[in-house]
Automatic annotation (TrEMBL):
<feature type="transmembrane region" description="Helical">
    <location>
        <begin position="6"/>
        <end position="24"/>
    </location>
</feature>
<feature type="transmembrane region" description="Helical">
    <location>
        <begin position="102"/>
        <end position="123"/>
    </location>
</feature>
<dbReference type="Pfam" id="PF09945">
    <property type="entry name" value="DUF2177"/>
</dbReference>
<dbReference type="InterPro" id="IPR018687">
    <property type="entry name" value="DUF2177_membr"/>
</dbReference>
<keyword id="KW-0812">Transmembrane</keyword>
<feature type="transmembrane region" description="Helical">
    <location>
        <begin position="44"/>
        <end position="66"/>
    </location>
</feature>
<protein>
    <submittedName>
        <fullName>DUF2177 family protein</fullName>
    </submittedName>
</protein>
<feature type="transmembrane region" description="Helical">
    <location>
        <begin position="72"/>
        <end position="90"/>
    </location>
</feature>
<keyword id="KW-0472">Membrane</keyword>
<keyword id="KW-1133">Transmembrane helix</keyword>
């Protein structure tokens, strides 16, 4: 598969799974713990820029190497590790710098980032 098709397939899978999580499954959790920090509307420009950049990293560092290795196991494990590190960058920084940042949100986000990226890499592979 060429790189452009791989990128957009990964984008579609990641975005679809993440929107279900953010829009349906976890919405009440985030409002409960972070409601005072949440904007009334999503800044879609910022969100889309994030998705385009993040997917580029996932394809470059995880999915493309997994395809070269011909290893679904590598895709899933490396995807999970990539997700853990990326989500930890955000959440642990918040935990370190934002007063009263909820530890439970960090734990949930780290688990979600690990799962989301492992699943996306595995499905895309």
């Amino acid at each position: 598969m060429d790189s452009i098709k791989l990128y957009f397939l990964t984008f579609f899978v990641f975005f679809l799974v993440d929107i279900v999580w953010l829009g349906v499954l976890s919405k009440n959790i985030y409002s409960k713990y972070l409601g005072h920090l949440m904007a009334p509307n999503v800044n879609w420009v910022a969100a889309i820029i994030f998705y385009f950049l993040f997917i580029g990293g996932l394809v470059f560092f995880v999915i493309h190497p997994a395809l070269l290795k011909e290893s679904l196991q590598f895709a899933i494990l490396a995807g999970g590790f990539f997700g853990l590190i990326a989500y930890a960058t955000y959440d642990l920084t918040n935990l370190a710098t934002i007063k009263d940042w909820p530890v439970i949100i960090t734990v949930i986000d780290l688990a979600w980032g690990t799962f989301l990226n492992a699943a996306t890499a595995g499905i895309t592979y």
